UniProtKB/TrEMBL annotation:
Subunit structure: Homodimer.
Lineage: Bacteria, Pseudomonadati, Bacteroidota, Flavobacteriia, Flavobacteriales
GO terms of molecular function: adenylosuccinate synthase activity; GTP binding; magnesium ion binding
Binding of Mg(2+), residues: 13, 40
Binding of GTP, residues: 12-18, 40-42, 305, 331-333, 412-414
Pathway(s): Purine metabolism; AMP biosynthesis via de novo pathway; AMP from IMP: step 1/2
Domain of life: Bacteria
Name the record gives this protein: Adenylosuccinate synthetase
Obligatory cofactor(s): Mg(2+)
Organism: Pseudalgibacter alginicilyticus
Active site (UniProt): 13, 41, 140
Chief localisation class: cytoplasm
Keyword field contains Repeat: no
InterPro entries documented for this protein: Adenylosuccin_syn_GTP-bd (IPR018220), Adenylosuccin_syn_Lys_AS (IPR033128), Adenylosuccinate_synth_dom1 (IPR042109), Adenylosuccinate_synth_dom2 (IPR042110), Adenylosuccinate_synth_dom3 (IPR042111), Adenylosuccinate_synthetase (IPR001114), P-loop_NTPase (IPR027417)
EC code(s) of this entry: 6.3.4.4
Amino acid sequence: MAVDLLLGLQWGDEGKGKIVDVLTSNYNIIARFQGGPNAGHTLVFNGKKHVLHTIPSGIFHEDTTNLVGNGVVIDPVIFKSELDKLEDQNVDYRKSLVISRKAHIILPTHRLLDAASEASKGKAKIGSTLKGIGPTYMDKTGRNGIRVGDLELSDWKERYRALANKHESMISFYNVDIEYNLKELETEFFKAIEVLKSLQFIDSEEYIYQAQKSDKTILAEGAQGSLLDIDFGTYPFVTSSNTTAAGACTGLGVSPNKIGEVFGIFKAYTTRVGSGPFPTELFDKDGEDMARIGNEFGATTGRPRRCGWLDLVALRYACQVNGVTQLMMMKGDVLSGFKTLKVCTAYKYKGDIIQHFPYNIEPENVEPIYTEVEGWAEDLTNMSDASEMPKALNDYIDFLEKELEIPITIVSVGPDRKQTIFRNK
Ligand code: IMP
């Protein structure tokens, strides 16, 4: 069976966790392929909210295997706290959670390096979640990293010490004021490592290959969003992994000709957390209303998210880079009550009108060109069937489908599993 992909098409926080949870009953395996605890995937069911950072969003379904792929970076301390929360809810993860031996480990000193690097950048800082993501991927590509499989080797602690010592000299090189107590951090880290070691480590590419051969259904769960991709995002204000479709191939060991559906998730408007250009960002009451009604605060850091109108130039670009086959529109309910909605359909770029996503999207280069569409007044949050949707919402969706040339098959009208409207392709 082909592997289906589920990806965020904007700057993250599109609601991937909810949709993975909704779709999980169709799949035998849910696999994370990149990112790490910088992600915060929120699931709501039975009146309770659950936030996952590294663990795939299929974990609450008993018969689903949840795989942490080789492309993921794992912080054992955060991983352990996620496991503790699952235990509190009597989720039996021991059989259903498997981890690639090739996934890299975030050390306490990676987190400190992240903080030192950001502090040294001053105003030019990325706005990182400071989870050690960048430094860990740097060690991966620099061929210095420690992988999950290394924990099975007798000398892994010596390797750890050598790398941590190197990191300490690098931290002092940054010459910024970072206070830390490495001994304390290490006590917590080594305790968490023991918990990690009690889980099932696997050769995940072989596992996935065999699963595909025996017709198991697999959904690869993306983290962050396409505009944060290390290659195709708004560099340098991006994360350090490939968040786009190709990342699923390298992050799981799946060949490109074995990819099936590519589900692209987007919000009915746009948000961004952290620094970096955002052409349709709003600084007025509309932006404040989106933030308030949409409860736009980071699930990992609690930081307020910047809000703006839907940007079809950016969305079209994300659909192209990922080969999206179906779209899923999130948070349509947040726009209820806006009289008029604006959608950016082109950019004015250095005097020309363009429809592609250019190299520079900073405000001095790009001015969004908007099309206005009628809003809807109805509360959508109790709707569960496409026939209940107001005409203006249907018109908005028709407009987006025409512009993007891809069907919108799910409209999400609230955080709960139940607040999901399926539309025919
Ligand atoms: P890092 O990956 O934590 O270093 O953060 C790099 C940039 O990506 C920052 O602007 C973060 O705010 C952003 N970012 C990282 N992970 C997420 C996410 O899961 N959702 C939204 N933004 C994210």
